[in-house]
Design brief:
Number of helices of chain A: 7
Number of strands of chain C: 10
Mean pLDDT of chain A: 91
Mean pLDDT of chain C: 83
Strand content of chain C: 15-25%
Helix content of chain C: 25-40%
Number of strands of chain A: 0
Structural class of chain C: alpha/beta
Distance between the termini of chain C: 52 Å
Structural class of chain A: mainly alpha
Largest sheet of chain A: none
Number of helices of chain C: 12
Shape of chain A: elongated
Order of helices and strands of chain A: HHHHHHH
Shape of chain C: globular
Radius of gyration of chain C: 20 Å
Largest sheet of chain C: 6 strands, mixed
Low-confidence stretches of chain C: 20-31, 257-278
Oligomer: heterotrimer
Helix content of chain A: over 70%
Chains: A mainly alpha (225), B mainly alpha (293), C alpha/beta (311)
Largest interface: B-C, 22 and 29 residues
Chain lengths: 225, 293, 311
């Protein structure tokens, strides 16, 4: 191959991105676990870990800039590098949302949960699956797979709306539960945002594979009644 | 290098190589000297022998009969100039036009034929040209003439001018021609207005080399210009030329004519050498003009 | 011959007269729907019996810069040279098909090559100023067309040099040799020389390949300013350059490819299927906006070439 050096550099960049993806995925699981077990030590370590993730993102970003400046990538190479850059940013934001979960844990202190956690862990699970599948789609350069992954964002949105309505009934019943309800709502909201971020990643995968720029799964506004 | 893996770089081997190198260098030096030696010898001999009688009179006076001191070869200088001039007038247009054709169309049948023909022509002994001119010009006219001499020299000159001009035109970058054609210039205007000026030094060089070559030809003159002890400016009359004068003086049994032969030879050699040196200088300039581009 | 000449001069002077209005009219062309300046229709080109170009179909839009890229030997320069009949200079060549300049077939035997070359100028790979003064280089073309009026020639010289962004650098030495200029200046002189006869199209055959980066950028900037007045077609080996300067890009290759979508209609007409013939003739693989070719090429071959994974 005439561009072995470039291929190698691009390969390293991809594996860096996949590692960042794995770590970001882990923060989702950890965040929800800390919420379920009310483990404030774990929450603290998630928050501390976030700056490390930020550093990884900057490292990827810098390598992208260096490759663009020195190798003048074009066509699929250009799309791939741009996608890596933007996916890295999405991954870092996912970790930020997980960090928000951990902050909720600390904020709640010893206050009991308003209701047992059922839908929130379910949301987290779907987010993780979607994330790992979208990164799979990226390594395989598979636009169809990326599209299918993004379709699952509807499940997350649906769960979020369900949680929203449920929490509203609590608040209507007893307005004193409002702060506890908001904590859970805020947690669900962060997971919902993670779902959107994964959808963005899917869009990038499709762009890298096909050059098509399209918006997937436009969020429907929550219907309140 | 202090690495020990190459034994040839050390000790006796090194001294042997240095010795062989010295011997070879000496041999090439000697060979070079041997090659230049005849030229130096001839020039110094001619200068020594001919220089003694060189005077202003030699350039301005007519020849004197045997035994009469003084006199010169003014008629032969003028005659040579005339014959060579006639040769140029005939040879230059033909060879220049042909050179442009051959350069532009090197692989056409005519181009190949012209180049082959000129190579053959260049190899034919000059005396044959003299006989040829005698047959086609002198015999029909029934008298010797400066014109027939010029005609013979023109045939000798044509291949020299043609090939030198061709080489010089080849030095002109091809894209210069394309540049002119792309502006809508027809081929002949391109040749005349762009290529010729670009190769002018080279073309002049070719002409000068041609002149230098034919100015020294004696053999064809015997059958054509014939020689004439008096001033003549009529191209239809026999005329004296420098090489022919040398020939006539040299084969005579008289001592003072022998001396005049040497002096005439000195004049001729100085002229030819001067032309050659000038041609070299112009050629170098021509090559330089495009090398920096 | 004489009438020929005066006709050419008349056309030329009219072109000069129209210059002022048309440059204004062309100013905001970018947003306008574009017209085709040169239309190549099913054009094949032969050197002797070997086919160098195969069924070329391409529309060069007016007042845009079109780049032709492709691997060595794919026929880029050959295609370029057919557009002003410079291809005629090589003996035993033959053009099939049509090349329409404003709808008029350049390949027709009745067409005056000199007129074609006046309308379609050319700039070459290596700067080739004539060994004459800068001034004489510039008036060479106009003089060929019979223009001898000193004042008019002076005006052409100044306008061409200004157009080629060279006026300020040489205005005080118009009568020194063009060869005394730097390589980049020589090339701009050649562009000015091409502009002096008011062509409608300027062909550029790797115009910056012999120049250093600064001189290259100057040429590229110049091309941007020329786009408003001329239709420019540039052949380049430098893909970054094609990406920088051009509005449209054509990718050519000589590799035999199966089922070419672009050439498919002509293949059907020939009665031969595209994937059977394994010819070395150059053809256009893909033509599109430069942005599209360099970010999302449709053909795999284009992609492989652009990303440096050719062959």
């Amino acid at each position: 191959m005439p561009r072995d050096t470039f291929e190698n550099q691009l390969g390293e960049l991809k594996s860096q991105l996949l590692q960042l993806g794995a770590e970001a995925g882990q923060t989702i699981t950890d965040g929800v676990a800390a919420l379920r077990t009310r483990d404030r030590v774990m929450a603290q370590s998630i928050i501390a870990h976030d700056s490390e993730i930020n550093q990884r993102r900057y490292a990827i970003e810098e390598r992208c800039y260096a490759l663009i400046a020195t190798q003048q990538p074009l066509a699929s190479d250009l799309r791939e590098i741009i996608s890596i850059l933007l996916i890295a940013i999405e991954l870092e934001r996912i970790a930020d949302h997980s960090k928000n979960l951990a902050e909720i844990v600390i904020h709640m202190g010893n206050e009991p949960l308003l209701k047992p956690l059922v839908d929130i862990p379910r949301m987290a699970e779907i987010c993780r699956e979607m994330l790992s599948q979208s990164l799979d789609a990226f390594t395989r350069n598979d636009a169809r797979m990326a599209g299918a992954v993004c379709d699952r964002d509807d499940e997350i949105d649906h769960l979020y709306q369900q949680i929203f309505r449920e929490l509203m009934t609590y608040v209507v019943d007893d307005p004193r539960t409002v702060s506890r309800a908001l904590n859970l709502l805020f947690a669900a909201h962060n997971l919902e945002r993670i779902g959107d971020r994964v959808t963005n990643i899917g869009e990038r995968v499709i762009y890298a594979a096909t050059g098509q720029l399209e918006e997937l799964n436009v969020d429907q506004p929550i219907q309140s009644d | 290098m202090t690495t020990g893996s190459f034994p040839q770089t050390r000790g006796a081997n090194y001294r042997r190589r240095k010795f062989v190198n010295g011997v070879m260098l000496t041999l090439t030096g000697v060979a070079t000297l041997l090659a230049v030696f005849p030229l130096v010898w001839i020039i110094s001999y001619v200068v020594l022998e001919g220089g003694r009688f060189l005077s202003l009179d030699f350039f301005t006076q007519l020849p004197t009969p045997v035994g009469v001191p003084g006199g010169g070869v003014a008629n032969a200088i003028l005659g040579s100039a005339m014959v060579v001039g006639i040769a140029c007038v005939i040879a230059m247009p033909i060879s220049l036009v042909a050179a442009f054709y051959v350069t532009d169309h090197p692989n056409t049948p005519l181009g190949v034929a012209v180049r082959f023909g000129t190579d053959v022509l260049a190899g034919i002994p000059s005396i044959v040209m003299g006989i040829f001119a005698y047959t086609v010009v002198v015999l029909p006219q029934r008298h010797f003439s400066a014109f027939s001499g010029g005609f013979a020299l023109a045939i000798i000159m044509t291949p020299i001018v043609l090939r030198t001009t061709e080489e010089m035109l080849k030095l002109v970058p091809r894209n210069l021609r394309e540049g002119a054609l792309a502006l809508g210039a027809p081929e002949w205007k391109t040749s005349l207005q762009v290529l010729l000026p670009a190769a002018l030094n080279g073309v002049v060089t070719g002409v000068m080399l041609g002149i230098a070559r034919v100015a020294g030809e004696a053999a064809p003159m015997i059958f054509t210009a014939f020689g004439n002890p008096f001033f003549s400016t009529d191209p239809n009359q026999p005329i004296a030329t420098l090489p022919h004068t040398i020939y006539v003086y040299a084969i005579s049994p008289y001592k003072d004519w022998h001396d005049k032969a040497w002096t005439t030879a000195l004049v001729l050699i100085a002229f030819v050498l001067g032309l050659n040196v000038l041609a070299r200088v112009l050629t170098a300039r021509q090559a330089h003009q495009w090398s920096g581009n | 011959m004489a009438t020929d000449h005066s006709e050419r001069l008349r056309v030329f002077t009219r072109a000069l007269a129209n210059r002022e209005e048309s440059s204004d009219a062309a100013a905001g062309v970018a947003g306008k729907p574009h017209q085709t300046k040169i239309q190549v229709r099913d054009m094949s080109f032969y050197y002797g019996t070997s086919r160098a170009l195969e069924s070329i179909n391409i529309d060069f839009p007016e007042h845009y810069i079109t780049a032709i890229i492709g691997p060595s030997g794919c026929g880029k320069s050959t295609l370029l040279r057919t557009l002003n009949r410079m291809s005629d200079l090589v003996p035993h060549t033959r053009i099939e098909g049509q090349i329409l300049l404003d709808g008029e077939d350049l390949t027709a035997p009745s067409v005056d090559v000199v007129d074609v070359r006046r309308r379609v100028g050319m700039v070459f790979q290596r700067p080739n100023p004539f060994p004459k003064s800068i001034y004489d280089n510039l008036v060479f073309g106009p003089r060929l067309l019979g223009m001898n009026d000193r004042a008019a020639l002076d005006a052409i010289v100044e306008r061409s040099l200004r157009g080629a962004a060279l006026w300020d650098e040489v205005k005080d030495k118009l009568h020194t040799s063009g060869l005394a200029l730097s390589g980049g200046q020589q090339q701009r002189l050649c562009i000015a020389r091409a502009m002096a006869i008011e062509p409608e199209v300027i062909l550029m055959d790797e115009p910056a390949s012999a120049l250093d980066p600064i001189a290259t950028f100057k040429i590229e900037e110049l091309m941007q300013s020329l786009r408003e007045r001329y239709t420019i077609i540039i052949v380049t080996h430098n893909m970054q350059q094609a990406a920088r300067v051009s509005d449209y890009t054509a990718f050519m290759s000589w590799q035999a490819v199966a089922a070419l979508s672009y050439n498919a209609p002509s293949a059907e007409r020939d009665g031969s299927s595209a994937n059977v013939t394994k010819s070395q003739a150059g053809r256009i693989i893909e033509f599109g906006s430069t942005r599209q070719i360099f970010t999302t090429p449709k053909e795999k071959e284009t992609e492989d070439y652009i990303t440096g994974r050719f062959g």
